Amino acid sequence: MKNYALKTPIIQNFDMKYYVHNNEDIIKPLIFPPHLHDELEIYFLIEGDVSFMVEQNLYKLNSGDIIITKPNEIHNCILNSSTVHKHFCFWFDISCDFLFKSFTEHEFGKDNLIRLEENAKKEILSICNKIHESSIKEDKQGEFIYSSQLIYLLSKKVYYAKQTVIPSNLQKILDYINQNFVEIESIDSLANMFFISRSTLCRLFSNYLHTSPKLYLETKRLANSRKLLKYGKSVFDACIESGFPDYSNYIRLFKKRFGITPKQYKDSN
């Protein structure tokens, strides 16, 4: 019988944060601003009239649905009507590749929705509640065990087909932005390229994505600049190569959005 030695630790880095909202308060229709994270985000809807935008796709969620966004994917939650909003939201450091690889292999803005069978919904909810109970008890071992179980179970689920209500003309515009955000000179030039007025373009973004084309374009550029900074580019190069025409404005936008300067972000990675 052979003996096997473990040469490297299985868990090299495991960091999890979470948020839970589970009360009966009715919240008025609300659009959370588009944003992004350095971590993997797992959003689990328990109850509510909710849609979720990820990059160029808009998903209408059912209770028990899960949205997974990987680092730097633009996303935001939308409360469509006055509703309760019961949910869990988890953020995981993805440095531990063997745990999170299956969650980060998808293309940006694709395959973000997991739709579960009823039994699986109950199982996932039970695990989420156990994570919360462990946290209240300051049981770090329990938090680790149950959050690892959550990751394991979700990694075995098949991503659900894209579900979007975005019209084809807006989809074409979003596809163009995603491929050419560095070169786009202005929102007016973008509207002209697709033979529509600026007001029509803004209305399309507002009606379907609940944001503006300016904010969407800025967020795409900021996401790209963060990726470049993480890979060792200088702040100036990250600014220029992401399409920002004004260096000072780039630093201001970055700090306003993320709370730190590009230099501080670069030095932290």
Summarize the structure.
By secondary structure, the protein is α+β, with helices and mostly antiparallel strands. It contains ten helices and nine strands. Helix 1 (97-104) crosses helix 3 (140-155) and helix 2 (118-136) runs antiparallel to helix 3 (140-155).
Keywords:
269 residues; alpha+beta; Arc Repressor Mutant, subunit A; five-stranded antiparallel β-sheet; 9 strands
List the SSEs and their pairings:
Elements (H helix, E strand, L loop, with lengths): L15 E6 L8 E2 L8 E8 L2 E5 L2 E4 L5 E4 L5 E5 L6 E7 L4 H8 L8 E2 L3 H19 L3 H16 L12 H13 L6 H7 L4 H11 L4 H18 L4 H7 L5 H12 L3 H6 L2
Antiparallel strand pairs: 1-8, 2-7, 3-6, 3-8, 4-5, 4-7, 6-9
Tell me about this structure:
The protein has 269 residues and is of the alpha+beta class. The protein has two domains: 16-155, Jelly Rolls (Sandwich), CATH 2.60.120.10; 168-267, Homeodomain-like (Arc Repressor Mutant, subunit A, Orthogonal Bundle). It contains ten helices and nine strands. The chain has helices at 97-104, 118-136, 140-155, 168-180, 187-193, 198-208, 213-230, 235-241, 247-258, 262-267; strands spanning 16-21, 30-31, 40-47, 50-54, 57-60, 66-69, 75-79, 86-92, 113-114. The longest helix is centred in the middle third of the chain and has 19 residues, at 118-136.
